[in-house]
């Protein structure tokens, strides 16, 4: 993310999400999961919504503008969802000057999702093939981006500061660890039940996976899958 701080505004440009890239482990009330946005999903979403909003920390009371009124431009290219915005909010300007902006996030609803199982982590792996995009958010140090690799490049009077998620305050890191511990048991129990359903009464041996994920029958868990609609932050 490139940020140019002006006297009365902030110009921000960068990628909200790189398509075909797995997220960090995310959290729902059913446990942890991983997801990626498939190429083309953002482009279709932008065709359906001509007024995507830009918020601060997913807070609807901190609406900073939108694509309909010109403060925000969104496009999908071969890398992912690219954003360009000009923000006049005093708090965002202050956060930019102080190096307190840590990345992007986005809020959406599923339209088409395949749920697999990640062999490396054992977590459900959501492949979002189509979605409705409602907002993108600038995140300050109160939140952490859900996807790795976000850097904030702040330009103010010729100076540049690089901020990565590894520099989050200790309080946020501690909160994430505590949440991971709280959901670990529930996640493991849910996965054990899924594995039991896969093997119970099976007459045909499944074909070996051709990549690092494998399909599983989620018909009994349609409500869980429906719940895995998330605002893209892991705090």
Tell me what the structure shows.
The protein is an alpha+beta fold. The protein is built from 4 helices and 13 strands. The longest helix is centred in the last third of the chain and has 30 residues.
Topology:
Elements: E1 2-5, E2 10-18, E3 26-28, E4 31-37, H1 41-48, E5 53-56, E6 59-66, E7 72-76, E8 80-87, H2 90-97, E9 101-118, E10 124-140, E11 151-156, E12 159-164, H3 170-199, E13 213-215, H4 222-227
Parallel strand pairs: 1-11, 4-10, 5-10
Antiparallel strand pairs: 1-2, 2-8, 3-4, 5-6, 7-8, 9-10, 9-13, 11-12
Total individual domains? 1
- What is the structural class? alpha+beta
Can you summarize the main beta sheet?
7 strands, mixed
What's the overall average pLDDT, rounded? 75
Low-confidence stretches: 148-180, 213-226, 228-235
3D shape: elongated
State Rg.
19 Å
Helical run tally: 4
Number of strands: 13
Give the assembly state of these chains: single chain
End-to-end distance:
20 Å
Element string (H = helix, E = strand): EEEEHEEEEHEEEEHEH
The amount of beta strand, in percent, is 35-45%
The percent of residues in helical segments reads 10-25%
Task: For the structure shown, list the relevant keywords.
42% strand; disordered C terminus; 22% helix; 235 residues; alpha+beta
Please provide a brief summary of the model.
By secondary structure, the chain is α+β, with helices and mostly antiparallel strands. The protein has helices at 41-48, 90-97, 170-199, 222-227; strands at residues 2-5, 10-18, 26-28, 31-37, 53-56, 59-66, 72-76, 80-87, 101-118, 124-140, 151-156, 159-164, 213-215.
